[in-house]
Request: fold
Amino acid sequence: MPFVAPLALLGLAFIPLVVAFYMLKLHRDDAVVPSTLLWQRLLTDVEANAPWQRLRRSLLLLLQLLLVAILAFLAARPFVERPAGLAGDLVVVIDTSASMGATDVAPNRLEAAKVAVLEALRDLPGGGRVSVIAAAGSARVVSNGTTDLGRVRQAIASLTVSNAPGDLADGLRLASALAARASDAEVLVATDAALASTPDARVDAPVRVLRVGRDARNQAIVAVAVRTAPSAVTRSVFISVANLDLESAQRRVELWGDGILLEARDLFLEAQSRADVSIDDVPRAVGVVEVRLVAGGATASGGNGAAVAPDRLAADDQAWAIVPPDRLRRVLLVSDGDPYLHTALSYLPSSELYAVTPAEYGSATHPELFDLVIFEGKVPAELPKTAILAIAPAATSPLGEVSGTLKQPGIGSPDPDEPLLRYVDLSTVHVAEASRMTLPEWARMVIPGPSGSPLLYAGKRAGLPAAVLAFEPRRSDLPLQVAFPLLISNLAGELLGGSAGPEAAVAPGTPVSLPLPNGASGLRISRPDGTTADVLPATLGALSVTVDATDQLGVYTAVPIGLQPGPSGSPGSGSNPLPIASPTARPSSSPAGSARASAPPLDPDAPVRFAVDLFSVTESSIGPGSAATIEGLGHTRAGSPDPSASPGAGAGSTAVPTDRRPARDELWAPLLLIVLILLCIEWAVYERDGLRRIRRGIAARLPMPRRTT
Amino acid sequence: MEPTPTTSPSTRARPTAALVRPDLLPSELDPTVFDEAFLRQLERLKLLLRQPVRGGLKGGRRSVKRGRSVEFADYRDYVLGDDLRQLDWNVYARLEKLFVKLFIEEEDVTVNLIVDASASMAAGRPDKLLFAKRAAAALGYIGLASEDRVQLTVLGGRLARRRNGLRGSGRVFRLLGDLSSIVPAEGPSDLVAAARHAAAQLHGRGLVILISDLLDPGADRVIRELAATGSELVILHVLSPEEIDPLLEGDLRLVDMETGEGLEVTVDLATLDAYRTRLATWRENLADLAARRRATYLPVSSDLALADLVFAELRRRRVAG
Reply:
């Protein structure tokens, strides 16, 4: 029998030592007795003057010699060999995406995948190297090319289910790169194969899939949105629930506002269908709404969110949304007076329009107190530190270089996914004259003009949103079209922003950029599990920080840290100079006028909240996919053994590559069991007196059975 | 044969309790001091014999001889030389024949108390020798109160040291003094030789009471030697509680207190069980031997109360009654 560590057999040298210990005379205490008459020849094995006779009868010695021999044998790590079923260089890709948290196999798919991988590793040839990749939203190597299976098991055990949507492509590409370094490599993928599409990856090694998961029973919240009612008094919550199962389901949607159950609706969901729920009259005081999907007919789950999981995946049964705060946005228009622009801006919801002429604009205007400053024509050399929209800049400014004038410029083909042009039809727009500008590096092209000259571009300059429209609206027929108010609304929407944090739900693992208030040294992020982390800006003077630890589902709160109390306020309040407001500012002209009157001013230092939700139909579709699809991504290199030839890959062929080392099965388990049994026996022999006393004590306490005559 | 006490309690001389009052006794007699109530109870007892004995002097025991007691035994024909006072004139008046009236002769008996004073008797808690002295004192007191002759013999070494015989309850102080003066022998003892020596000193048939632990390889020969004297033998086999149920445990070297020899043993539960089995077998063998020799064998523990020994054990074995 071969041994991994044959030198450990030297431990057998302890056997004579054990025997020697038994042959040594014991130190015995003297006990004076009246006579040794009755003690003589009682037990010959305890007499000291006959060591070999004593040894022959000592059961303890026999047990201890056996223990020493087996322990030496165990330390030498005996093993038996058998043909290896895996390549010598194995790359294990374990899917840790959200769908692997499904509980259709106990305790969940990821744990089942771990077990399957560990079971498969038994076919690893002796000395085989193993790399482990965790594949969720992105792939990462948790163990790289080690022959220590203990470390591999530890790395596998450390994997947890991620809430991020999974795409195996990244993991497979990484696995292919790792496999490329060895000639006899193989990729082992443990996944539920619940993929919407085939991963866009090609693996330069054979791929074998360990598929886990059984059924597709899952219903998910796939969208939650909060909208302010036209009255601006209450809000409505729109919820979209998808039944991704092949059978219909009865579910209940609960809406919680700041931990209080607001409403519950029962839903009957047909198979493979969606149902939308709109819940109105959410109170104004609610800051965070939480939507829970519970079992149909279930009672309210209480404030702690501990609901009975009605389906296989719990991660998509909860969703959160931040109610956008009532904010009164202030817009400063620096213009000589463009009635079209003025009219369009005055209809922006939740905004208050102020207007000054370029001559009146100056430091006394306090432009930094406005949320948006619009310059028409002349752009000052020193730009205010706020969002800026420049319209037809007459000369070169920090916002862009003006190199001339374009006469009747044609409008190019914009990006169809450009958010600023949503619902905006420019096909019938004609521009008489525009400034010839050059697209700066910080901006993206929104409306292309002739010869690469932009007619509208937008972006973030020095961390602040900015946009430049190269022509005056009144110098085109744009104001006469529906596209004009839509474009102005879209521009204002991007430049003003909904809130300091992202309004839409953030996908797990997605970095979030949050504005840094003036004077703050960083942000303290409170995660849904209660932990906090301080996020500092990458550079001094940065206006925003990026939070990338968004792997947990729930509500995150960012609080400024290191903030010094300083002057703040709104235009016209306190000692700040009152901006010269135009008498044309007409709050009452807005449909949301009543809201403006009571809307609190924006506090730039207030905590910022954002929600991280799964909202991935792909990830919620937990039905196990086809392993062959993923296995088809791999291919056998010339000279590499075919994985299908291995014993574990299928029943078709039993041929084993001759150059592959055999797998080893170490025999520690049965030996350890024998050692434990021997230890128990030795203990029982050593303590036999005590055991007998216990048995006699029990027998003495038990009542003697009475004889019946 | 049933024991045959021939003397009624009213005819016996009874020592007064004041004679053995504790405050009147020397301190060395303490081991044998009994309280008054116990003494009164002892006075009601008598050492029993299975059959009449041939004694020496006139005593309270029924003799095989015809004598002059008040208890009628038989008639026989008158022969020349008979005491005419023994003729039954009433019979002569009716039958006109001379008959002599015979009466039961009452004689004394010698109670031999043989106390083993070997070194092993000093062991135990309470020690066996103390128990032997107290038992001998009680039995001797009964004997003296019954007008028997009490002879104390002490075994030690290879010899049996015989003390002067005592008769009459008035000699109880002498008996107690003799018992108090017994000290354990030093060094090894040969119990067989000592017993043989004691047997050689016995005269006539009587009662022999051996009080010993019999911890000698020739314990059976001791019984044989004493039983061969023709006297009725009573063996009080005394062992201490530590010898009956040893409290030893672990790896020990057992030292014989007589010989000083050591024996290395590992005492565990199995060893103790084997010891108890061996002890029981040894006692059974001694009891069988005693039964074959018409002797009374009584195993006792040295922590046995003297009252229990005398009034329970000895009565049950019909040694006293």
Q: What stands out?
A: The first strand of chain B starts at residue 58 and ends at 77. Chain B has a mean pLDDT of 81.
